[in-house]
Design goal:
Blueprint (H helix, E strand, L loop, with lengths): L1 E6 L5 E6 L8 E5 L6 H9 L6 E3 L12 E4 L11 H11 L4 H14 L15 H13 L5 E5 L7 H18 L2 E6 L2 H7 L2 E6 L4 E7 L8 H4 L2 H18 L15
Parallel strand pairs: 3-7, 3-8, 5-6, 6-7
Antiparallel strand pairs: 1-2, 1-4, 8-9
Helix pairs in contact: 2-3, 2-4, 3-4, 6-8
Length: 257
Amino acid sequence: MRAVGKRFSNGVTALERVDLTLREGDFLSLLGPSGCGKSTALRIVAGLSSPTTGLLDWRGPPLARTDIGFVFQEPTLMPWANVFDNVWLPLRLKGVSRKDATPAVSEMLERVHLTGFEDAVPRELSGGMKMRVSIARGLVTKPRVLLMDEPFAALDEITRFTLNADLLELWQDEQFTVIFVTHSVFESVFLSNRIVVMAARPGRVFGEVAVDAPYPRDEAFRTSPEYAALCRKTSDVLAGAMTAPALTKAGAFDGVH
């Protein structure tokens, strides 16, 4: 993202001069307070919204639409369709028949631990299971980039921890690139190799924290001194972002930073 800005028709400036480089294979978290433009930035990367200023520059081979997967904050499943058909949807939109899609759908359901639930409908699933279906749907096309907009925010802590670990396993095995939006310092440190902290008024990149801890990460990492130190460091950067002065109309900071 090069000097990306986004101004809505109601006059609200959601993003201002956002510069952000995503490297292939990154697990990058966007962390920041509500209203700092994290989800707006994600939608621009996904092609669901266009920047008002600046540009998005994809290096390397051009990305097709199916090279980008999106997992929303809510599972957004079709309530009338069973688990198999919900995961099949992206392939169906590509013209892949149900029969031809069966190996890919079955593989992804196995990867998210939902084998045996193919015929269940969303109302029969727990919140965590619904999110697993959403993740399987986002990955069934084997995207190069997976965008995740606070996918675990509404889940209980135990389910969230389990899905964090499962997501990291998928990321390491499938070798896709992730941009993960979260409000949680603890989640961002556990998952990411890079944390980009955003400030509001308007949304902009405030700072970045490198998480150099090796993968795979497990519950031992969550209780380690290294994890605690990284959480403190990230919390300090976030605290700075939340008290950062707003930008003037000319684009300068009101005050000294």
